[in-house]
Amino acid sequence: QVQLVESGGGLVQAGGSLRLSCAVSGRTFSNYAMHWFRQAPGKEREFVGAISRVDGRTNYADSVKGRFTISRDNAKSTVYLQMNSLKPEDTAVYYCAARATSAYDTNYYLGQYDYWGQGTQVTVSS
């Protein structure tokens, strides 16, 4: 059974930082590119960014570029989302997702994810 478990969400003031973690169990972590998504109330789920399987290359949505950083530790089967300079519009439930793909792929693929986490709430107050 594959499990993705996010943690690290919470309430932070605008301009602050949070680091989310997503721990993966049940499969070989390095076989998967890892993606982060978010969903705000009343809005569709939105791609935040992704990190490749093997060399750490990343891809980010324009809305978070320069503020968010994704990293992974294959030895710990964990992916991280470091969020800096947070804004109220970053408020959402954040999800991690795993996608079996080629070694260097960080592209977003609609509806083509193998596993999802349960989400963690991030609230940014103004």
Describe this structure in words.
This protein is mainly beta. The protein is built from no helices and eleven strands. A hairpin with a 6-residue loop joins β5 and β6. The model has no long low-confidence stretch (mean pLDDT 96).
Low-confidence regions: none
Tell me what portion of residues adopts beta-strand conformation: over 45%
Our Rg estimate from Cα atoms comes to 13 Å
Question: What's the tally of helices?
Answer: 0
Order of helices and strands: EEEEEEEEEEE
Mean pLDDT: 96
Structural class by helix and strand composition = mainly beta
Helix content: under 10%
Characterize the main sheet: 7 strands, mixed
Question: What is the terminal-to-terminal distance?
Answer: 40 Å
The outline comes out as globular
Number of strands: 11
Using brief descriptors, characterize the structure shown:
11 strands, 4-stranded antiparallel beta sheet, mainly beta, 7-stranded mixed beta sheet, 126 residues, globular
Describe the secondary structure blueprint for this structure.
Blueprint: E1 3-7, E2 10-13, E3 18-25, E4 32-39, E5 46-51, E6 58-60, E7 68-73, E8 78-83, E9 92-100, E10 115-116, E11 120-125
Parallel strand pairs: 2-11
Antiparallel strand pairs: 1-3, 3-8, 4-5, 4-9, 5-6, 7-8, 9-10, 9-11
What's this, in brief?
Helices cover 0% and strands 50% of the residues. It has strands spanning 3-7, 10-13, 18-25, 32-39, 46-51, 58-60, 68-73, 78-83, 92-100, 115-116, 120-125.
